[in-house]
Design goal:
- The protein contains five helices and twelve strands.
- By secondary structure, it is α+β, with helices and mostly antiparallel strands.
- The strands form two sheets. Strands 3-4-2-1-12-11 form a six-stranded mixed beta sheet. A six-stranded mixed beta sheet has the order 5-6-7-8-10-9, with no helix packed on it.
- It starts with a helix and ends with a strand.
- Pfam families: Exo_endo_phos.
- This is Endonuclease.
- InterPro entries: Endo/exonu/phosph_ase_sf, Endo/exonuclease/phosphatase, GPI-anchor_lipid_remodeler.
Length: 255
Amino acid sequence: MNHKLIVFILVLFGSIFHLSAQKIRVLSFNIHHGNPPSEKESVVNLDTIAQIIKNSNADLVGLQEIDVNLARSYNEDQAKKLAELTGMHYIFSKGIDLEKGEYGTAILSKHPIEHVEKHFLPSPVESEQRSLSIVEVRINKKKILFANTHLDLKDNNKIAQAKFITSRFKNEKRPIILVGDLNSEPTDPAIKELGTLFTKTTSQNGFTFPQDKPSTEIDYIMVNSASHPKFANHRVLEEKYASDHRPLYVEIDIK
């Protein structure tokens, strides 16, 4: 066989393998500020959270219920600490001021974060302030928006917050991955609103709460439908110790 042809075939197969191995791996996890529900409230175990993230090999991670400089978690910046433990880039997005610190969500990324947005979400009914954080990263030479949120428990607020999210992204041309604890079942109005723009990874994301005997589907990974996503290896991780939620994982191919 011609030497140049052999080289071409090897390069072609190498390229195909490279592309097939470059799925975007995504994890969403409400970590309950690192306090395992089976332990005393004084126990905070970020090492276990970090190990779960590392074992997943996720490119992008959305975390909810993150403490920064709170007494109950020993005045540690949990977003920064988890970034250090996993070797990832990070941002923290405040929901509320609490004691002398802050409480909210965080994003971890294997890839450098090129741009950051943070929005406070609307609350027509008085409640705990919630936020939406968005980062831009470049994966497989594509610019991806990765958004993370933790919606309110109150129905009026959840619907308003979902509408804020769809309004923010309705004219967006780039691929968008949205993750978070949405405190909503699949048939709830907030999920139907998000469904006007986003596609869920499966018809059922899977039960993630409570962690010991999960019976509720409230944690989600979604991608804007215009990106024509393909999903693989979708699963709720068999993790019962680290938090009162189980982590949700999926691999995504985006057109």
